[in-house]
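In practice, a research group might receive sequence data for several interacting partners and want a quick structural hypothesis before committing to experiments. The following worked case mirrors that situation: the sequences arrive first, and a predicted assembly follows.
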Amino acid sequence: MSAVSTIARALPIPAGAGLARTLVERNARAFRHGWVTLVSGVFEPVFYLFSLGVGLGALIGDVDAGGGRMVEYAAYVAPAMMAAAAMNGAVFDSTFNLFFKLKYAKLYDSVLATPLGPRDVAVGEISWALLRGLLYSTTFLLVAAAAGVVHSWWALLALPAASLIGLAFAAVGMSVTTYLRSWQDFDYIQLALLPMFLFSATFYPLSTYDESVRWVVQATPLYHGVAMIRDLMLGDVAWGILAHVAYLVVMGVAGVLFAARRIERLLLR
Amino acid sequence: MISAHRLTKRFGEFTAVDAIDVEVRRGEAFGFLGPNGAGKSSTMRMIGCVSPPTDGSLRILGLDPATDGPSIRARLGVVPQRDTLDEELTVRENILVYGRYFGLSRAQVRAKADELLEFAQLTERANSVVEPLSGGMKRRLTIARSLVNDPELLLLDEPTTGLDPQARHVLWDRLFRLKRSGVTLVLTTHYMDEAEQLCDRLVVMDGGRIVAEGSPRELIALHSTREVLELRFAADDHTPYAAKVTDLAERVEVLPDRLLLYTDDGDATAAAVQGRGLEPLSVLARRSTLEDVFLHLTGRTLVD
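A structural hypothesis for the assembly, expressed as tokens:
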């Protein structure tokens, strides 16, 4: 037995056959029949950017982007829209779409009858969510650049950064989905997402909050996603950004492992 | 192909499969027969390596499902009880994508898809979506899909439940062809005619246990008589009549609407019944079937 498989067996990593890519391929084929969802994913952050950034921004003027640096409001809010869109896309894919496949289409019942294992299902579905997310964030970045709110070449790194946000949220979203019983339960997800979207220093700086509640905001994953992408798009990069990266990497890896375990529990009984 | 020893599956307190022993040989068609809830599907899921046994030993194709699940599944074909076709894909894509799950190349699955669509008589519907297909077509597609990896062992869980007679006969024909080409078939069913048509050997399960084992002919010889005489009287309760004919047959079984007399010569027994002045509404002497064995083994009110 190879050293790798010995280690794999000792660690709590659910079984897989390394064929997760075939599930991505399956999703890509299904997607060709229902490409209209692509449109909403592309336009959502763009609409926000123009409504809030450009429209409302005209009333607001410049804001403090941290360290006393003033930027126009659209440039301030655009990274937040990109981060929030990455979150929303990943959550939508890993909750609504996954719940449907899990409970109604029974997709994984037939997938797991093949060599694929629960790890392949988790990795495949999350990879697919990331690929879709990458398409959305690339489009958004192009629009934002055309609108003149991108201030640095560092902004190119906002693409992998948005994928990292996607990974973290898709992995946790998938884990949560395995606990859902009916469509009503999705309200709980909205209940978690909406305040995060509104209060994670998305529309105004963290300094707006009183010291005593800042830590609450800083504990949420979207705060780290927004801060990371904002630093990149404004070209304001320091070592501190790695803390945001680390937070999201840990969330993503733990989420994938947990999601695969849950799939195993649910379907391989 | 399959070797199970004291194989057990428990869900919490409930024992679905209770220490069964099963041997399936290469090239045969083997059946699990039993009423709903007998433990057939749980057994099939364990053989399909998607449900870990609670106890006992299980080896499939000489391998252990606990450690070699993916390599075993790579050589199995699975037709689940409910069609789990991918409704977001077309008929042809269902086969293509499923083949890719087995790690086959794109060229391989394309060639295989054409061949299997032909086999399942679905070539004309290749680019249709799955949803509007008839039940028989969906079932054939599920079987075609399960063959994409050229399985050595095909597991069919109630392959023809819910299909009309024509569709069942088409499916049986396809399964015969597979068997002739050397594929080992393992199927569950609660249709006796299906078991008699398809199975070389079978086990009857009830309450998680195996209650009988053998070829259809052996089971009939062992648990039934050569013929069965069915008597229907103008009465709601047939029990009183049973007492009057009980000495004319080896065994008498009371069903809600008729009496079954197990005998070696149905016509002679019918004559004897009439000789006693009894006048049934209808009299039918027929050969014994697996259904008689099944009813006998899995519970009925018996009058010996």
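Before designing any experiment, note the following. The beta strands of chain A are 62-64, 70-72. Chain A has one domain: 16-267.
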